[in-house]
Amino acid sequence: MTITREQVVVIGAGVAGCTAALEAARRGLTVTLIDEHPQNTAAMSLDAPYFYGARLAPVLSDEGTIADRVLGSNDLLMECLEAGVEVLTNTCVWGLFVSGPNNEHLECNQVGLADAEKSWMLGFDYLIVAAGARDLVLSFEGWHLPGVLAAKGATTLMGKYQALGGNQVLVLGSGNVALQLASQAIELGIKVVGIVEAADELQGDSELAASIKDQGVQIFTGYCIKSTTGVNEVSGAVLVPVSDQSLPPVDITCDTVCMAYGVVPNVELVASAGGALDYDAAQGGWAPRLTTEFESTISNVFVAGDASGVTETSLLNPDVSIYQGQRIAAAIAAREGQAVEDEVEAPQVQSDSRSVYPPQYWLDALVKAGGMGVMACQCEDVSRQELIEVRAPKYLASTHSSPCDAAKTFVAEGQASQDMLKRMTRVGMGHCQGRRCREHSAMLLAGIAGVELSKVAPGSYRVPVRPLPLNIIRAHDEPKEMRDSWPTWLHPVEDTIGGVH
Amino acid sequence: MQNADVVIIGAGITGLSSAYWLAKAGAKVIVLDKGRTAAEASSRATGFLSLRGEQPMESALAAEAEKLWDTLDEELGYPTEWKQEGRLWVATNAQEWADMQLTYEHFCTTAIPFELIDGEQCRKIVPSLMPGIVGGIHTHRSGHGNPQRTSQAFAWAFQDRGGVILENSPVVDILVEGGRVKGVRTPDSTIFAPVVVNCAGPQLAKVGAMVGVDIPVATVRLESMVTAPLPPLFDVAMVGNGLSLRQTRRGNIHFNGGPHEWIDVSLTEESAKPNTPIVRNIAGRLAELMPSIAHIPLLRSWAGIVDVTPDQVCIVDRLSDPEGLIIACTSGHGFGMAVSVGVAVKDLALEGQTSMPISALKLDRFKDLPSDWKAQRQWQPGSYNT
Fold first, then answer.
1. Residues of A with CB below 8 A from B365's CB?
2. Which of B274, B280, B376 sits opposite A497 (nearest CB)?
3. What does the DSSP assignment read for A187-246?
């Protein structure tokens, strides 16, 4: 089968991706830029990869309006179109496949793409992954109700789609991602009913924090959410003090609770193809191992923007993403034999945010407020307690489901295995593909196993990195030879090699 | 330096089952693995017990396994998700139906009861099957379980009885003195034991080569996947439209099949197990076989490495040269068989003989095998899709 092969493929039309695409096009390279927005409403309702929490405004079903809004809100993407970049929107990338050990029969390196109707493969010489970041989520009583969403989901709905179906937002967390979300909401006229911070002070950039305070937003430092209120959807939240027990609990009215404890890089595409990850708390945990040219350990696969690592600075300032995009485009041009003289300089930008990864103090506060009975995995209905006890899933109704120190058996030479935990508890095996529980589960495992979070080997990342209906991912273009020669399993083998029977 | 009654190389399901039965019998056992427990083929199996109806050499051993499966949850104290609900092979077109008549004849080589049934009967057993099903082979015998949970159940039950599993501890040498096994060496320690069991799965041949024992095993990478959970649709362990599939207790359809790549493996490193774009073709075949679930999302895919002998039959043998070396190779159908293979290994290790039916499974049946058998089969590393 012969597949189309492009010179440069860029995944993600954020600042990093668009900059890389523009810069590569400016240098005369042929570029295809792929972005999954505007998403279909069916995909949006899955809460994967974005945790939208059912706060989807009705206008989302108006495809024309939404397409205009998503494209219209992205000036850089418009520039890409004008610069001759081939742009595929409403197209998700679900897999990365590269030739290498034990995979020697691939026609060329390629990505798997899908739109609302079908999937197809696209070959590339160079790949730039600018897939952004994803929300880190920690749970509390009632977090499964419609109206509980996460920061990236909320900012995407507010910014790209202008379709956040909520009017009174309570923000959990006060790092830069939380403060930015709050200021964006205020700008759009959405009421921010409060910012809740488990620590004693706001964590994020002081300038940003001051401007939000000036807007009169209520700040609840030293508080944690205990639960949401509401039956069929969120109608409020109960906040309790973390350490100063003389403070009163607070009942607050809101229709939207936004988890903004932190974000982590979207590493699944590179990791699923065998790219190495390293743990770096300053980059938001596990991030791809990159060269100074931002090339991953997979040759000719580069990573730019938040997908390469999220810092409090990069959340506020696009200069880092712009630099990475330019640097990668220059590196590719050089490999294509161009003389690249205008070496770009790394920007010197900083934020005085004190927000750190992982937000362990948040988890401690949530456990103190809500206990261990709180659900940790929505897809598979597993509580924190069931997780750390490595209890077999409820549907097995098993009385004796694991040894008393089961989590410790997942540790070898100081390294704990999230995969082994996942297999036994199913936490991370549901339709959100672990996006709503991965960090939470790793932090709980680190605690019970007595190891640092960096010593919890992350659960394997798997293709497809987007859950896709069989009908869509299936190979509509299957060649006849494959159909005819499809082997079910090895036997029977009909030959006459001596000594076999 | 440590001492044990038995050292087992490989913490896959075969090694863990052997270790469990040995520990239960009171032996001091250490299991070594180059990586983590059940991290390779054992956690990537389809989860079927193959009854080996076409294979008199080992059908009796499969029947022993089936008996043990019946009470395995109680035996181990942990759930395996085993479900004895029978097996079904379906033909999706006239050609497959014609081929199936021959398969049926082969299946009837042994005493295990199989039945040829028509398309309507197939759809009674699995209502979600495509309307065009022509017919099938059915048996009420056998079933399926959860490979990962079963391996871990054996591991925990073994540890509960004092057994030791040393992970990330590759065996780099087997010690032999005067024609007898003395123990094994890892990069940082030596473990002495009078009996060493080679359960190294894909690495069997390389471990055998440490003491000059030639074990004919080829290794192959296969791909597997699951859908999102569905309501209960079928209970049988099924084969059809080029796939093997089962519905898990949780409701996901777990399925695999299709082209595979022959590869080489390492004694110390975890092998790369990439998925390929073939996942699209595998997914498409499930959508064809069960059109009513074609809208269900594919959640994840993974790949595994499987060891295969030339006749695709197990090797379970205690050698006399070197004395004390036991080989247990389950040739790509170890998930179901490991239960009884483990009992045989226990007997061979402690008594030197067993009442388990393994007399046809000796290594010397391959003594006349040409050295280039893999090349003749196109099963050597790099070959594809045979």
1. 499
2. B376
3. HTT-EEEEEEESSSS--S-HHHHHHHHHTT--EEETEEEEEEE-SSS--EEEEEESS-TT
H-state helical runs in A310-371? 312-316, 319-335, 360-370
CA distance B74 to B83: 14
- The answer to whether residue B308 neighbours chain A at the CB level (below 8 Å) is yes
Closest by Cα among B297, B293, B328 to B207: B328
Both tokens of B98, joined, read: 């014609």
Residue A153 tokens, joined: 């989901």
Which residue is associated with the tokens 């704990």? A416
Q: What is the ipTM of this complex?
A: 0.95
What residues of chain A lie within 8 A of the CB of B259, using their CB? 482, 486-487
Q: Tens-digit pLDDT profile for chain A (501 aa)? A: 679 999 999 999 999 999 999 999 999 999 999 999 999 888 888 878 889 988 999 989 999 999 999 999 999 999 999 999 999 999 999 999 999 989 988 999 999 999 999 999 999 999 999 999 999 999 999 999 999 999 999 999 999 999 999 999 999 999 999 999 999 999 999 999 999 999 999 999 999 999 999 999 999 999 999 999 999 999 999 999 999 999 999 999 999 999 999 999 999 999 999 999 999 999 999 999 999 999 999 999 999 999 999 999 999 999 999 999 999 999 999 999 998 876 778 888 888 999 999 999 999 999 999 999 999 999 999 999 999 999 999 999 887 789 989 999 999 989 999 999 999 999 999 999 999 999 999 999 999 999 999 999 999 999 999 999 999 999 999 999 999 889 876 655 666 676 665
Radius of gyration of chain B from Cα atoms? 21
Q: Where are the beta strands (DSSP E) in A354-423?
A: 375-377, 382-383, 411-412, 415-417
Q: What is the pTM of this model?
A: 0.96
Chain A contacts in chain B segment 33-92 (CB below 8 A): 36-37, 39, 43, 54, 73, 77-79, 81
Side-by-side strand order, sheet with A148-150: A148-150, A256-259, A168-172, A191-197, A219-221
Residues of A in contact with B301 (CB under 8 A): 462-464
Contact state of B249 with A395 under an 8 Å Cβ cutoff: yes
- Decide if B366 and A499 are in contact by the 8 Å CB cutoff: yes
Eight-class DSSP state of B100: H
Give CA–CA dist B16/B147, Å, rounded: 12
